[in-house]
Every structure is written in structure tokens, then in C-alpha cells.
Amino acid sequence: MIQRVLQRSTVAVSTPPVWRLLVLPQRGYASKNTGAKPSRDEPYSDLFLTKSLSNKSFDSGFIRCTTFDNHGTIVHHGKDIRKVEFMKTHNLVARDFRKISRHLHAGGNSAFFDMVPSIVTRSDSILLNLLNVRAMIKKDMVAIFDSSSYSTGGGRGSRLNESRSQSMFFKDLSERLAIQGDELPYEFRAMEAVLVHVMTNLTTEMNVHIRVLQNILNGLEDNIDRVRLRYLLIESKKIAQFHQKVLLIRDLLNDIIDNDDELNDFHLTDILKGQPRTGTDHAEIEFLLESYYKTSDEIVQTVQNLKSQIKTTEEIINMVLDSNRNELMLLGLKFSTGLLSTGIALYVSALYGMNLENFIEECDGGFELVVVVGSVLFVALLLFSVNKLKNLQKVTMTGVHREGRFKK
């Protein structure tokens, strides 16, 4: 650990940081023109101030999205649009972009925002926030808010997987929206494409967790070591986080299905035609959401089984470790018993070997007498200790045997 810290400090001293290469010319220019001595903290303040101002101005001014028309054709791909203009065009308010903006600029450390799903209806649109999909659905257009360009978290592989998943989602969405003569209205087809994409990603992630967990459990069956236990702990935390994410989506769909007014608000086409749905006349959207609710519920049940497997494995590992610990303690008690029995024999022989006058030295069988007495005491103490040790090993579920032994 100390060597690693020393190596990091050495690299930090020997290699100039990137910001110094970018900021030093500006410092030199300022000091040359003003004649003032540059401050040591000036590069930090300049860099952070520039970053904060640029992010703040961009966040308050523009939003990037991909737009589909009523035929499923991409009209704008990753286009930066002014928020004020976008809100006026689609009758939205600033609070509708609050969660989207926080997601766009939070980067890789914003796992909390990704885990909070929501489906909100407005006068002529539906706003969805499910996993990495931020979308606005209307009766004749769909806007997918792009967040990949602003995300700084993850490596190159994760960005490639996200780009591939997003391209497949755009293709499926375009094909569903291009279907003419379908019984489902435009907004339902768009919502179905989003739900299919979300459930596909959840299923893929679940399969990855299943495979990783099975490999860890199979390795623990062969050998319980520190590395495998560490992997099990890490995977347990990931599965718990994934379970919370799926559970929130399932509960969201369940709450929407139970709310008749919200289900009626999803019929954007009928509302704009002046024929809003009332009461329980929402069988189409209810069946659509219910099918994906069942899919999410199956994923939740599977993840709960994985958590139960982890819990069972942890209990078995604890029992095995406790058993090994008890065996080691028992082995120590056996050695102590043997040493105690040997000690009584050595004590008798030491008394005989003292340079004192006694009647044993005058007898012809004194040596044999000492050997016999020492051996008898050795065997008696050894048998007594072994008997007590066997009684200590007997463990019952009720503890009646141990209570009776203590009373004796």
C-alpha cells in the first residue's frame, strides 16, 4: 500500500498535469501584460470557473434529442435545441426538464437518477423516464433525449454497448412507428417500443448476473477462499441494486394500471380529437402495460431467487467456518489434556529425583513404585479429561444434556 502511494506521488511530481499545459500560456500572457505576479491558485480557479460557467450556460440553454415523425422517420438526430423554444412548441414547463437535465450532466456518478423511473402525462404528451431512456411521446412525434454525449462515466466498452443498444432501440422504434393500419394508436406503439427496450436490457443484465453468480458459487463449492468471498460480496451488492431498480419499475407499472384516470390520459389521439376516454374504457393500454408488468414481475422473482441463493450460501459458509473453528479449538483442548496428564507424571518423577532423604530411596523397588504411581496418575487424569471433553462435544438442539451435566 505504501509503495503504491509512493509510486503515485512520484508520477504526479514527474509528469506535469494536462491543465498546467493548457493554463500556463494564459498565465504568462496575463503576467506579461499586467506585470502582476501570478497567483499559485489561479490555474485551479480559472479552470473550475470556466467549466462551471460552460456547463451552466449549456444546461440552461440547450437540450439534445432525436426526433421521429408520424411515419417513423428520424427528422433530427442528436440535434441541440433551445429549451425555451422546445418548451413553447410542446407546451412544457421548466420542471419537466429537471430530471432530464440532472441526468445529462451528472455523468457516471449518478446511479441514483437512473434508478428512479417515472411516466408522467401532460395535456398533449407523455414523458417517460425508464432506465437510460428519456422520451417525450405525442400523437404524431417522439423525442428521445440523448445523454450519451454528456456522460463521462464508464469505459470504452460500456459506451460501445450503450451505442449499440441505442441504435437497436432506434431501429425498432422506427419500424413500429412506420406500421400503418395498426389497431394501436401512434403513442401506444411508441410506448411499447420503449417498454420492449427496457425489458430487453433488464433481461440481459439479469442473465449476466445469473452467469456470474453461478460461476462464483461453483468456485466456492471447490474451495472457500478470500478472493471468492470478496467476489460474492461484490456480486451481492450489484444484485441488490439491480433488484431495487427492477422493483421500482414493476411498482410504477402497477400503480399506473390501478389508476383509471392516468390510463385514460394516455389516449392522446382521442383527447386531441375531442373524444377523451372516461371510466374504465382503457382496455388497450391496460393490456399493454399489464403484459410488461408480468415480465418485470418475473424478473423480480428471479432476482429474489438469486438473493436467496446468496443468503443460503453465506449461511452455509458461516456454518463451515464455525465448524472448522470448533475443530481447531477441540484440537487445542486435546493437546492441553495430553500435556496436563504428562505433567502429573513428570511431577511424581521430579519428587523422586529430588536430592532429599526419604524411605523410597532405601527400598529396592523404589524406582518401580515411582514409575507405577506416575503411570497410574497419568492414565487416570487422561481418562478423566477425555471423558469431560467428550461430554463437551455433545451438542443438542434443546440443551437438556448440557444442563443435566452442569447440575451433576
Radius of gyration: 37 Å
Strand tally: 6
Q: Which spans have pLDDT < 50 for at least 5 consecutive residues? A: 1-59, 104-113, 149-155
Helix fraction, binned, reads 55-70%
**Main beta sheet: strand number and arrangement?**
6 strands, antiparallel
Q: Termini separation (Å)?
A: 56 Å
Name the average pLDDT.
77
Strand/helix succession:
HHHEEHHHEEEEHHHHHHHHH
Please state the overall shape, judged from the principal axes of the Cα atoms: rod-shaped
Beta-strand residue percentage: 5-15%
Overall SS class: alpha+beta
Number of helices in the DSSP assignment: 15
As laid out across the biggest beta sheet, the strand order is 2-1-6-5-4-3
Mind explaining what this structure looks like?
This is Magnesium transporter. The protein is an alpha+beta fold and 408 residues long. Among the domains are: 2-38, no CATH class; 328-407, no CATH class. The chain has helices spanning 2-14, 18-34, 42-61, 83-90, 98-106, 111-114, 156-177, 186-222, 226-257, 260-265, 268-272, 283-352, 359-362, 366-393, 400-407, and strands at 62-68, 74-82, 118-121, 126-130, 133-137, 142-145. A 6-stranded antiparallel beta sheet has the order 2-1-6-5-4-3. Strand 5 (133-137) and strand 6 (142-145) form a beta hairpin. The radius of gyration is 37 Å and the shape is rod-shaped. The two termini are 56 Å apart. 16% of the residues are buried. Mean pLDDT is 77; it is low at 1-59, 104-113 and 149-155.
